[in-house]
Amino acid sequence: MSDGGDLVELAKRRGFFLQSAGAYGGVSGFYTFGPSGAALKQNIEDTWRNRFAIQEGNMEVDAPTVMPEPVFEASGHLDGFDDMLVECPECGESHRADHIVEDNTDIEEAESIPVAEVEELIAEYELVCPTCGTGLAGQAIEDFNLMFETNIGPGSADPGYLRPETAQGIFIEFPQLAEYARNQLPFGVTQIGRAYRNEISPRKSLLRVREFTQAELELFVDPEEDEPALEAVADVTAPFYPAADQEAADGQPYEATIREVVDDGVVGKPWIAYYLGVAKQWYESIGVDMDRFRFRQHLSGERAHYAADCWDAEAEVDGDWIELGGFAYRSDYDLSKHDSYSDEEFTVFKQYDEPVTVERATVDPDMSYLGPEFGGSAGAVADALEALAERDPDAFDESEVVVEVDGESHAVPVEKTNFGVEEVIESGEHITPHVVEPSLGIDRALYTALDHSYREDEVDGEERTYLALPQEVAPTTVGVFPLMDRDGMGEYARDLVEKLRAAGLAVTYDDSGAIGRRYRRQDEVGTPFCVTVDYATLGEARDDEGEPAAPDTVTVRERDTTAQKRVPVADLPETLTALRDG
Ligand code: ATP
Predict the structure, then answer these.
(1) Range 440-456 average pLDDT
(2) How far apart are CA 535 and CA 548, in angstroms?
(3) Atom 26 (ligand 1) nearest CA
(4) Domains of the chain, earliest start first
């Protein structure tokens, strides 16, 4: 484990990440991934894609990061994607009011507390501005919308926003995506891409930034019929921390299998439980320490109003539990919203097993008999009656029906001459699928994997730092060194680099400095194997009989144990590929 400072220092020195635009003073909440970090991030994304898209048979899309305003009107972000901002009356610095409460009291998840209560807590605990120490009691809290606004094209007629989550790019294309899935539920659509939030106070390095990468899956299911086959993850165990236990004085997370939390109803939606199992396996595979990992259910105040159930994957980093990903059962909220705000239908046609005959009320469009009291609205009343007939044919069993047109109620007498019943054969119905959403942040996963794989030990009496990253995600799989760049060892090593690269391995070549220093450099970027070309490789070392000792072999040194063994060069690509892929 690192203290955060050591890791951030190593991250900059060894090319994982650094604050962007340092030449211009830096800007909070924006980071550039260096060569090691970009490779690590790409590997993490590849493993996510493999696990959540390819292995699960889900599709992948790649939508724009800028979207027009109506999308966010429909999604609710324009109105409600706010954080609580409190401004210091002395230095003018803005802070997140809920974070000030969390950081200085033992209250957790202050985000879920109403604004007025947060104001009271600030006064009650006499909380102060983290920048200048001035008391914040009495300062009003404002809602601050986190979306970055821009204009699409010249002028300001078409406002657009940088997407605050990748999900909307999937939801708004649902009608076409359903076609690609041949209207068969369940189907899943994934996306890995940048999201932008104008965070009030970015902090903790990559953990809260203003531009980050999300990996999201939107799984569209028929709530009446689709259940996951749990087998693949049924035996996966993890610590679960249900809301009730968080609220109980002595509640603690407890270890359970995915099967158990479904059977016991602890995770109410089996699809959510299924993806918790998948996610746990994935987090473990990228280097998150499972002794510092848990699933925590949202408290009722924390949950979005449309989410029937929501769990977070959390990891402990520098003594705090941070959210790595959210798993929400979003019901039909998103698709219904886009259905009503747009011109398209966000439904799928669900075929019945057998066609059914249904009775439907019919309405004569000629409403002239209704008399002058309906004035010019007779046509609109007829439309309203027709809509009602489709929705609720039984309404016409009464002697009169009431419909609303333009805010006015019209009581219409039901006369058999104008209303009838017809029989129609229906082969199915339009339903709005429900959405199961695992939404994972790549930057937080990457930072946690680095933090949890940070190790310090002693080798040959010297302190060393290394990253015990899993081979599958390590930025480089193998470092190749000639003992010295002379007598042909350099050429031999560079040749070997070409061969290993041709075999698809990520290889780095290094001939500068003592071999021990070269090992340390690779240890610090988490390179699992180092290969050294020496005189024996060239056939110039002799055994007891005076024969070449080990020609065309190299030493392979393993990062964590520092153990070395000699391996024939001919077998090296296969040996290393097998080691990388476990
Ligand atoms: P938080 O409560 O920590 O702000 P959130 O609940 O708003 O996070 P979601 O909207 O559920 O986050 O987003 C899904 C994932 O995206 C998060 O679990 C996290 O990994 C990532 N994420 C969200 N905001 C940020 C950010 N500002 N910086 C880095 N990653 C983020």
Answers:
(1) 98
(2) 10
(3) 208
(4) 1-67+165-347+432-466 (3.30.930.10), 354-426 (no CATH), 476-580 (3.40.50.800)
